[in-house]
């Protein structure tokens, strides 16, 4: 189902896969909005517990937008450096700038806020936002491929743990995937942790 022609170092997904992902996103956005509206008071408690196993490691979180589950309490509680992604341009991996709860923030691309200044870090743990996930450990993002490119680059350079963070209600039976999709090591939800072998 994939066109093997190279495009900027990535395999170009075929039209059927692209359309299947668009269709899955429509379903997933509705599921995420419903899960967000019914969220428990502290949806990040399992993420905080999961990060305790990564004390001292550099963790990348994210600034939540729209109905994304909020990782900020877990990021603020992490015992180690924390950073957030910065879009460096279309077709490029993300870079990561140091963040603290007191960091001055400015507008970044696609509506996410980024630190105005701070050290550039390389995370050993990446908290990955998403629109949906499935039981195999694949996620559906917004379609830009930023996290897939970034995880591929980080994994090529050394060990990295990719933790999806989502509401349990964002799980779909099976997502359409192509050769570019990076599998997650685990998905942390408001209900617990799902690990993938």
Tell me the layout of helices and strands.
Elements: E1 2-7, E2 10-13, H1 15-37, H2 45-51, E3 59-60, H3 72-77, E4 82-86, E5 95-98, E6 105-107, E7 113-115, E8 125-128, E9 132-133, E10 139-140, H4 146-157, E11 161-165, E12 186-188, E13 193-195
Parallel strand pairs: 3-4, 3-8, 8-11, 11-12
Antiparallel strand pairs: 1-2, 4-5, 6-7, 9-10, 12-13
Write a structural description.
The protein has 197 residues and is α/β, with parallel strands linked by helices. It has a single domain (2-195), classed as NagB/RpiA/CoA transferase-like (Rossmann fold). 24% of the residues lie in helices and 23% in strands. The protein contains four helices and 13 strands. The chain has helices at 15-37, 45-51, 72-77, 146-157, and strands spanning 2-7, 10-13, 59-60, 82-86, 95-98, 105-107, 113-115, 125-128, 132-133, 139-140, 161-165, 186-188, 193-195. It has a seven-stranded mixed sheet with strand order 5-4-3-8-11-12-13, sandwiched between helices. The protein is globular, with a radius of gyration of 16 Å. Residues 1-12 have low confidence and may be disordered.
